[in-house]
Design brief:
Layout: H1 8-35, H2 44-61, E1 65-70, E2 73-76, E3 79-80, H3 85-100, E4 103-108, H4 114-126, H5 137-146, E5 152-156, H6 168-187, H7 195-207, H8 212-216, H9 218-222, H10 229-247, H11 251-262, H12 280-287, H13 290-294, H14 300-314, H15 332-348, H16 358-367, H17 375-385, E6 393-396, E7 401-408, E8 428-435, H18 444-447, E9 448-450, E10 463-466, H19 473-480, H20 485-490
Antiparallel strand pairs: 1-2, 1-4, 2-3, 4-5, 6-7, 6-10, 7-8, 8-9
């Protein structure tokens, strides 16, 4: 039990620190099991540290400890772990190691002995499943039990994390989104631009398996107005990461395109040399080329960043600043940015035009691809976001009012380098019912339904129509962010 004088905030910080140490020591023992035999002293120190951390967690949690690393998110029991860049890299490597055995984490039933830890991680690294085995996890689990290891076992990969906004994924989505927005805002104030920081942010978005839901969950919570250049760049980058994942591109290719999206307005990092002579757009477009003078060497990534900045400023009609006499054909990165920005501008609204909902903006682009944009890429954006994006207010066939709270697609790392574009695969759409036709609240345990599943009246759950969200903002937010104790604690709202 925690000390009586521990405040809830202090205890949460200690749990977070213990969770990080758990990730580090599990990874350390996995590497030790690969490199050393059972009788090697290399197991001693990491085993002692792991048992020390487990003693604290078991005492505080008063239950078995399960550590999961999945889709770039680390979770320890009900706690989503906030990882610094170094620990995030370790977690990503740990996820890859566990995936070799089709495992998602490690489950500690009770305090293991040092000998059990040695044998567990040694067998994890050295065990070879039979050639005809259909699963890597089951033969290894049976082998561990046969060896007498009962106080710890491998946890299978979760089919999916908890719904967006209702558990670890939703909390992590807001965390990564907010952190990236602050980081890019800081980045665009630097002269010259620190491309290493931009690359790190791009890799974080790719490693955490960013999808369009990381953006759509932030819309009702953070709003669409008063957007900073940093947040605008992150909006484009998150959607670009989702589109790249949907196309099945490699991790490196995704990171290159996401980095170009983060820096597509890099010219704004430099001051307007003459506001009376140049508009802000003209100065930003022209000064994007200044990255060439500030760079130590020329590289394909630099060329992509500069061309993306200039071609975005030219616009789809290629008639904007810097007004080139013979503008080039836009590169893929530039077309990607322009398609995403067109969709985002429709949501934010323009002069004398109110903003649309994500569903309305997507439907408008689906019906008619904007002039000057690649129609095929527009269709990919539509397929990625979907015609029922997260946060859409709907009326179901039985006249219940509900909110789309999760769309299950583009999950995990298997989408990278996929043979067929993952965006073509069938998706599952989950809706939280919030009000009955009589205006009564739907109990939370009965609220969540999947479109296409059987309804209690013998029909199937289907959408009757999409509703205007105006006046329903509080209902949408309550549906997006449920308040189980674990999530409330993670967000610092209550102990």
């Amino acid at each position: 039990m925690a000390a009586p004088n521990d405040t809830s905030e202090d205890l949460q910080q200690r749990i977070q620190a213990a969770g990080k140490q758990l990730v580090i020591h599990v990874f350390s023992l996995l590497k030790t099991g690969e490199l050393h035999d059972l009788n090697n002293d290399a197991y001693l120190r990491p085993s002692e540290k792991l048992i020390e951390v487990l003693d604290f967690i078991l005492k505080v949690e008063r239950q078995a400890v399960t550590m999961l690393v999945y889709e770039g998110v680390a979770q320890m029991n009900g706690h989503s772990l906030w990882l610094d860049p170094a620990t995030q890299e370790i977690a990503n490597e740990l996820e890859k190691w566990l995936a070799r055995r089709e495992a998602g984490g490690v489950h500690f039933v009770a305090r293991p002995s040092e000998d059990e830890l040695r044998r567990f991680f040694y067998h994890f690294a050295r065990f070879r499943a039979p050639a005809d085995a259909k699963s890597q996890l089951r033969p290894l689990s049976e082998h561990l039990i046969a060896d007498g290891i009962t106080r710890m076992k491998l946890s299978p990969q979760p089919v999916r994390l908890e719904g967006v906004g209702q558990g670890i994924r939703g909390v992590a989505s807001l965390w990564h989104y907010a952190k990236a927005s602050v980081g890019v805002s800081f980045l665009l104030e630097q002269t010259p631009i620190d491309t290493k920081l931009a690359r790190r942010l791009a890799l974080e978005l790719v490693d955490t398996c960013a999808t369009e839901q990381d953006f759509t969950i932030a819309l009702p919570l953070l709003g669409v107005s008063a957007r900073t250049p940093g947040r605008q760049a992150v909006d484009v980058a998150v959607l670009a990461a989702a589109i790249c994942r949907g196309l099945g591109l490699s991790v490196v290719h995704c990171a290159d395109l996401v980095q170009a999206c983060l820096l597509h307005e890099a010219g704004r990092a430099y001051g307007n040399p003459d506001p009376t002579e140049f508009t802000a757009a003209e100065a930003a477009a022209t000064l994007a080329v200044k990255q060439l003078a500030d760079s130590r060497q020329f590289s394909p990534e630099l060329a992509q960043r500069v061309s993306a900045g200039v071609e975005f400023a030219l616009g789809a009609g290629r008639t904007g600043p810097p007004y080139l006499p013979a503008p080039p054909t836009p590169t893929f990165a530039s077309q990607l940015i322009m398609v995403i920005r067109h969709w985002l501008d429709a949501i934010r609204g323009r002069e004398n035009r109110a903003g649309l909902t994500p569903a309305e903006a997507t439907l408008a682009m689906y019906r008619s691809a904007p002039i000057g944009l690649d129609p095929a890429l527009v269709q990919v954006l539509v397929a990625t976001v979907g015609l029922l994006p997260v946060g859409t207010l709907v009326e179901l066939h039985n006249q219940d009012i509900g909110v789309v709270t999760d769309v299950e697609h583009l999950r995990g790392r298997s989408v990278y380098r996929a043979e067929e574009p993952p965006v073509m695969q069938r998706r599952k759409i989950f809706i939280d019912r919030m009000r009955t036709p009589a205006g009564q609240l739907v109990p939370e345990r009965l609220a969540r339904v999947e479109l296409g599943d059987d309804a209690p009246d013998g029909s199937i759950w289907r959408v009757n129509r999409i509703l205007d969200p105006k006046g329903w903002e509080d209902v949408i937010i309550r549906a997006m962010v449920r308040r189980p104790s674990t999530v409330v604690t993670q967000m610092g709202l209550r102990a």
